[in-house]
Amino acid sequence: MQGGSTGIVYGGLKYQARCIADVSADPDNTSFLAGTLSLKEENEVHLIRLSPSGTELVCEGLFYHPNEIWDLKSCPFDSRIFSTVFMSGETYGASIWEIPELYGQSNAPQLEELVSLKERASKLKCVLWWPRGRHDKVISIDEGNLFLWSIDSSSKTAKVISQESVGMLHRLSGGAWDPHDRNVVATICESSLQCWDLRTMKKTNSIENAHFRDVDYNPKKQHIIVSAEDESGVRIWDLRKPKFPMVELPGHVHWTWAVRYNPEYEDLILTAGTDSAVNLLLASTTGSNDSTSESLADYATLRIDPLLHSYSDYEDSVYGVAWSFREPSMFASLSYDGQVIVESVRSYLQKN
């Protein structure tokens, strides 16, 4: 089903942008963080919240960031903490920041840098937080290495616990931390997906011969992962049987850049692409105890086309997309021209 946007638009970003993240640790608000990517201007991080009426997006805080933001993640256990990967000239860095107390003012004081992740051998790609509750470790991924850090916010220190190089044959571009097992992380590179045991920093298994753009774990089912790929669109894998995908889903007309499982309804998947569109996909799963997921699975059996809806009212490529953890029927998308749109998929949860 094709269609334009019927969502709520936030027009506060003045510069180009790629990164948006749900503030999952905020129990009281549906809120997102978005970071800009200006080469010449001082960049910004916007704290965006959905109004209590659910009719508009409000800037709750605007914070200056010293460099271009290429990756942004919100801390899963503290709504005021987030990480960025940034670039200044040809130098990459990564830091963990704390949002100051706002006291009702949107133009708040400068962000406080809690920790700088200084060690880097090559081009940094992303920082990962373990998505299930409080954890004192983060992962950074650069083109050639995987680092596991121990973070002490009180003393503002970060220590590398372990690291592993993937060798000259691979260039890492991202990854995801297994929500079911804090000792497992999946990394993606030009031609494969690799799973690592963080206790030994050894590769446990891999999916070969695919050009991965993004990957995300199913939050409800262990061993299940979804990938966005250049040639094959979107595919769901069982990591215990990595030779062939479980399900193949349509991608975008151009590159499928990002893919995200819904945090509550495991059948729903979002993808974002450089064809200026966001796609809502329905991938049938079985064995769930969640009644809504079962309803969606029943609905999926009646459909030939897994594409529920394509949100196409964008004027530029869409690189960022994030489900709301607090309200899983809503998601935010960010196009390269700085436009944030929040949409509701509630109508698709009420088909049966």
UniProtKB/TrEMBL annotation:
<dbReference type="InterPro" id="IPR015943">
    <property type="entry name" value="WD40/YVTN_repeat-like_dom_sf"/>
</dbReference>
<protein>
    <submittedName>
        <fullName>WD repeat-containing protein DWA2</fullName>
    </submittedName>
</protein>
<dbReference type="Pfam" id="PF23609">
    <property type="entry name" value="Beta-prop_EIPR1"/>
</dbReference>
<comment type="similarity">
    <text>Belongs to the WD repeat EIPR1 family.</text>
</comment>
<dbReference type="InterPro" id="IPR036322">
    <property type="entry name" value="WD40_repeat_dom_sf"/>
</dbReference>
<dbReference type="InterPro" id="IPR040323">
    <property type="entry name" value="EIPR1"/>
</dbReference>
<keyword id="KW-0853">WD repeat</keyword>
<dbReference type="InterPro" id="IPR059104">
    <property type="entry name" value="Beta-prop_EIPR1-like"/>
</dbReference>
<dbReference type="InterPro" id="IPR001680">
    <property type="entry name" value="WD40_rpt"/>
</dbReference>
<feature type="domain" description="EIPR1-like beta-propeller">
    <location>
        <begin position="5"/>
        <end position="280"/>
    </location>
</feature>
<keyword id="KW-0677">Repeat</keyword>
